[in-house]
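>> received
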Amino acid sequence: MDYENFVRKCYLDILGRDVDSNSLRSLVSQLKEKIISCDGLVDMLKKSDELRASFPSLNKNWLSSINWSKSQWNEKLADCEFFNLKKSEFFEEKNLKEGEIYYSLIINELESKFADVFQRKNFSDMKVLEIGCGIGHVLAYMSKIFGQVIGIDISINRVRTANELNKDIFNCQIYEGNGIDLSIFSNELFDFCYAVESFRWIPSKEIVSSFIQEVSRVLKKNCLFKFQVRGKKDTNFTGDNWEHIRFSSEEISILAQNNNFEVIHTNGENTENYWITLKSN
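>> returned
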């Protein structure tokens, strides 16, 4: 298949313009390596900011009542500094340190607690997905040890900034998502998935459930998914004006079981930073 012509045709048919050279090279590479499918590329462009797309409706009864546009989401996310670093702030020591802290937290746990899960894998051979990557300050560290790191974020502005800031990292790509699912990615594509902060800011348990279901689809068998939500009992937090959703350990167990996951580690169940690690079955 001539992927280059396919990408050009998609841009012309959907966005009404030719694709820029950097995007062309990146998308052709992703199509060849089956990181995204042809249908996934079409879907991504149809939901892009250029078309001012809102969240698509899904064939899930519990999502049918959600009316949450990308503009509303981005307005709410203005409360969260983690997702809204400016380009000039990316290389500030405190922000680099924050990216390094999350990287170390995740990698130390993988190596110390779950080495048996990866005993047949080298990090350099693994494809990794970060959900809600912001401008990529955790991905930049992940790219140093993993073979390929992919980020997805709801904001086209953050995606553009992330790709610009990480343009010299050959094994790092960042895409715009729709904020509800991972439909641009094919099945059983990734060796490890994680989400830092992003699930703590999602406005609906149904959307979190959708992402967990989608990770079950795009993650290979016997692989790990690590993420954080807000715990159930810490109701005194007043750090911002967001209406937070919270999860109990029982709810997490049900979500895991319903999506063919096993809960293998948790930490901070009753706090603002309830970390969960799931293994796909």
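>> The radius of gyration is 18 Å.
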